[in-house]
Design goal:
Blueprint (H helix, E strand, L loop, with lengths): L2 E7 L5 H14 L4 E6 L12 H6 L3 E3 L27 E7 L2 H8 L2 H4 L5 E7 L9 H15 L5 E4 L9 H18 L3 E6 L1 H14 L8 E4 L8 H7 L2
Parallel strand pairs: 1-4, 1-5, 2-3, 2-4, 5-6, 6-7, 7-8
Helix pairs in contact: 3-5, 5-6, 6-7
Length: 237
């Protein structure tokens, strides 16, 4: 059955990294994937910056017309409507994670409400100023759902400091994510991190006796937006 995911998170949450990893993983499994870059707020660190790699993987990319054009006012292409009737196996929306960005999703509400296999995930990185605490994230969730009219179905802990991330960051994020989950009733879908950090975190979480529902599914990711030296020399910016 065709699946739809909307990935929402504040600036620096890592939602784009998650969206890219989900897309590449599914494409590697032979699925037909469409990635919709609808982040009309942040002109940097966008899914579209990896268009060459997406094309090489056979992933269809739809993005605002201002992307990489020097135009500051975004224009959302009508092509987006096609994802509700095409033959993709998986459609991922990378959405700007604030109320202004989420307004862009509101115009598709009539289509989304008819879908059966549809998830809206909110990504938390408590190392970012606008999402560092419980109250900030709850308020952001409230505003996003209000303007987009889409109900968030789960939250993910992606607390990180890019290449300086440690397991301590994920554990701090765990505490915030647990409380957001408790107060909103939203389930914790998963924990996101690079393979080494994520594996160490899960091992330590087990030693501490932390319940699996506070960790969710482990989502090991490769960094596409924040290049390490190897990817920089191979792929460039």
């Amino acid at each position: 059955m065709k699946r739809y995911y909307v990935i929402i998170g504040n600036f620096g949450s890592g939602k784009t990294e998650l969206a890219l990893n989900m897309a590449f993983e599914a494409a590697a499994e032979g699925q037909k994937v469409t990635l919709v870059d609808i982040d009309v707020i942040n002109p940097y660190f966008r899914s579209t910056e990896r268009k060459a790699e997406l094309d090489a993987a056979g992933i269809r990319l739809i993005s605002p017309n201002f992307t990489s054009s020097g135009v500051e006012v975004p224009s959302i292409p009508p092509e987006i409507f096609s994802v509700f009737s095409d033959n993709s196996d998986l459609v991922i929306f990378d959405v700007g994670g604030d109320p202004v960005g989420s307004i862009a999703m509101g115009q598709y509400y009539g289509y989304f409400k008819e879908l059966e296999n549809f998830e809206v995930w909110y990504v938390i990185n408590c190392r970012r100023p606008l999402s560092s605490g419980v109250e900030e994230n709850i308020e952001m969730i409230r505003k996003i759902t209000g303007v987009s009219r889409l109900n968030i179905t789960g939250i993910l802990n992606n607390t990180n400091l890019s290449h300086e991330t440690s397991t301590a960051d994920l554990f701090d994020g765990l505490e915030v994510t647990k409380e957001v989950s408790r107060r909103t009733g939203l389930p914790i879908i998963g924990t996101v991190g690079t393979p080494e950090i994520l594996s160490a975190f899960i091992d330590e979480a087990r030693e501490r006796g932390i319940a699996p529902e506070y960790i969710g599914k482990a989502y090991p990711i490769e960094r596409y937006m924040h290049r390490d030296w190897g990817r920089y020399t191979e792929k460039g910016l």
